Amino acid sequence: MTTSRKTSFQDVQDEVIRRIQDRIWPQGSLLPTEFELAEEFGCARATVNRALRELAEKGIIDRKRKSGTRVVTAPVKQAVFEIAVVRHTIEERNADYRYALVHRSVDPIPAWLGARLDLPQGAQVVRVKCMHYADNRPFQFEDRWINIATVPDVVGADFSDRGPNEWLLEQVPFTDAEIAMTAVPADAQLSEFLAAPENTPLLQMERTTWLKGAPVTFVRMTYHPGYRMQTRY
Amino acid sequence: MTTSRKTSFQDVQDEVIRRIQDRIWPQGSLLPTEFELAEEFGCARATVNRALRELAEKGIIDRKRKSGTRVVTAPVKQAVFEIAVVRHTIEERNADYRYALVHRSVDPIPAWLGARLDLPQGAQVVRVKCMHYADNRPFQFEDRWINIATVPDVVGADFSDRGPNEWLLEQVPFTDAEIAMTAVPADAQLSEFLAAPENTPLLQMERTTWLKGAPVTFVRMTYHPGYRMQTRY
DNA sequence: TAGTGGTCTAGACCACTCT
DNA sequence: GAGTGGTCTAGACCACTAC
């Protein structure tokens, strides 16, 4: 209605959202069929389909063949956190990024991690600890294990100039991942590197990634005190 | 290739992902045009379009008119946390859910919150504190402010049997929201309700929601010690 | 078995943007 | 100006599922 003369899937979506918000279609109620809506809006059924399909993916409506489309009663909303490279997170805040390598070694995998990743005893990993600073103030402490079997080239990477997160992103373009967020007390090491008294509550993110089922890396990223991980949805 | 004879958008998507993972299309490289891919896969351009559009939404490829489609170099991956009602989170873990109201009052909005929500001094809010238990063990402490102007019916809700989160979901079917996660030390109140020593690190989620631009509620949800918020992507 | 959503097609026009 | 993705159409067939 604004610039184009045809009804776009976006127009349909906006109107559907409006009707849900205005309780014209209350929670639990049945929407008209795609065919009926297409008639009403004067567009093709495919257009209505795309509009409704996206709303279903967002968890706002529930669609079932034969039964039809219903407004969800207790929507399970999805919060999307963008997980970028630390450097980008920092530069987005208009702060200067600095990286420092703390430790690098090649070790056999620790038992607890081997169990977690389903890797045999004696599997070799590269262990890297490093710091990320924003305007020269501690931002994040990174403690990482990289599976040499999956990423053989890691043996030749020394990580003195650039963090393993950026390096890995270039080596392994696309992975599955699992992440978890917890609150942990600062231990001696974290306390030192993040310049916080011991036992200060810190936000910690753990991430495991796989490439086609093969474990790539496990990492613990601990943020400076007071860090807020924020998003809109 | 499995059951259907036509090439589905899913087939196209899987093959594109495979080629990116196998470095047939390395990071930064240009993909064939939709038309060329449609020819190769023997399907309509719309099918290729849907496959690629979804990958672009996931941040795996980058599409620009005229320039074409490229494999993203440093993918900004998105972690999706499902934010459901606490009761569902608990019941999904096969635990018994129990709710307890701790406090309910009608107050003028605190200055710090008024500033945050862009509400005038003296605006009335309902303040609710409550506890959610899993198998009778503290799971989450909820501290909430509800804007009476946006949800007038809240005045008549006493929240003695059911948490304000569930009530609000029924009243306000669809909202915008902003959430933030932090690590906080247990203060006297949290320590008491969550059965944790003072200063124990706790994971806290803050959420603000709006309905069509009008603030609905602000809530702080603090989890029991050791809680992990987890997801795959 | 019939109704509803899920998907694909072949074609068309449009909008952005690089040259 | 021209190439590429973005979207819409009208129709078709399929797949699931409530009846």
How many helix segments of chain A?
Answer: 7
CATH hierarchy, class of the largest domain in chain A: Alpha Beta
- Poorly predicted sequence stretches spanning 5 or more consecutive residues of chain A: none
Distance between the termini of chain A: 26 Å
CATH superfamily of the largest domain in chain A: Chorismate lyase-like
Tell me, briefly, the overall form of chain A: elongated
Largest interface: A-B, 53 and 53 residues
Sheet bearing the most strands of chain A, described?
6 strands, antiparallel
User: Radius of gyration of chain A, rounded?
Assistant: 24 Å
Please list the strands of the largest sheet of chain A in the order they lie side by side.
4-5-6-9-8-7
CATH architecture of the largest domain in chain A: 3-Layer(aba) Sandwich
CATH fold annotation of the largest domain in chain A: Chorismate lyase
Strand content of chain A: 35-45%
Count of the domains of chain A: 2
Structural class of chain A: alpha+beta
Describe the protein's architecture and organization.
Two copies of one chain form a homodimer. Chain A is built from seven helices and ten strands. Chain A is α+β, with helices and mostly antiparallel strands and 233 residues long. Chain A has two domains: 9-71, Winged helix-like DNA-binding domain superfamily/Winged helix DNA-binding domain (Arc Repressor Mutant, subunit A); 86-223, Chorismate lyase (3-Layer(aba) Sandwich), CATH 3.40.1410. In chain A, the strands form two sheets. Chain A has a six-stranded antiparallel β-sheet. In chain A, strand 8 and strand 9 (214-223) form a beta hairpin. The radius of gyration of chain A is 24 Å and the shape is elongated. The first copy, chain A, starts with 8 loop residues before the first helix and ends with a strand. The model of chain A has no long low-confidence stretch (mean pLDDT 93). At the A-B interface, helix 1, strand 3, helix 6, strand 7 and strand 8 of A face helix 1, strand 3, helix 6, strand 7 and strand 8 of B. Chain A binds a DNA duplex (19 and 19 nucleotides) through helix 3.
